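This part of the workshop introduces the protein records we will be handling. Backbone structure tokens are a discrete shorthand for how the chain folds in space. Once this layout is familiar, the rest of the handout is easier to follow. The record below serves as our worked example for the rest of this section.
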Amino acid sequence: MNSPKSITSPATPSLYWLIPLPLLEAALVLAWSSGFVGARFSIDYAPPLLVVFWRCVLVTLILFPFVVGQLRRIPFAALLKNAGIGLLAMAGYLAGITQGIALGVPAGLAALFADLLPIGLALLAAGVLGQRLAPAVWAGLAIGLTGVALGTQGALAWGDAPLWAYGLPLLGMLSLAAATLWQKHLPASQSIGLLPNLWLQCCVSGLVFALIEGAQGSLAPIPSTGFVLSVVWTAGLSTMGGYGLYWLCLRRATATRVASVLYLSPPITMLWAWAMFDEPLSWLMALGMAVSAVGIWMVMRDEARGRLSATAAR
């Protein structure tokens, strides 16, 4: 990704390459899980997509002064491709999850569908790109998913949503998986810097959310402290933190590894909920987290072996 031909500033790669990858991944899990907490908090104050729309607006306004100069130098073809990635990663993923919940899909079940990302990513890579994963990686992904199911089983329930609505979170997950593979295989000449990328993704996704939410009601912000806090929380932690760290980690590791790390987001989300909303914890949650950690370790171990083999072959 980071070749001399990439459309990034020369200083950008050196900064985040100095940070140990496990530290970036730990920050990713914390920031990514904050999105579910933000959704849990905001549901009492506004429609979910209204908060998502305004969080995109806020990030777009904040980042614009910092990226306007870089955006002028990026070729239109690169902007167009990165906008497409953003539509899949942000608009497709968030709309699928939030609209499914809005139609009656239980939040716990929607979150579990979203947590199928590593499996969906592996299946897409195998089916579309013809990539082959080692049996140890498949086993690690399966063990990680088992841990997620164990830890979240208390929050799982079958709601009264229309049957087709249960497909929305799955489509959202597959949308993010497709965006991940597209971003990972984007030519270096089409890659842009992190901040321009986030700005572009929020800009185009905000337009989609405006169309969806505008068709259902007003786009006007709600004059309440809860609404403002919801937008600020999700814009800062979930968008700039979560998506920013996701793309950074993707430049440093395989897509399968980065996605598998997100298996730890459900138990971390539950810790957030315990601290903020006094929701109960259980030993089953701890067991699920431990099982997921074993699965992630298996994926990381196989990746490390692959790097050593590639180095030895040279």
Remarks:
- Residues 1-13 have pLDDT under 50 and may be disordered.
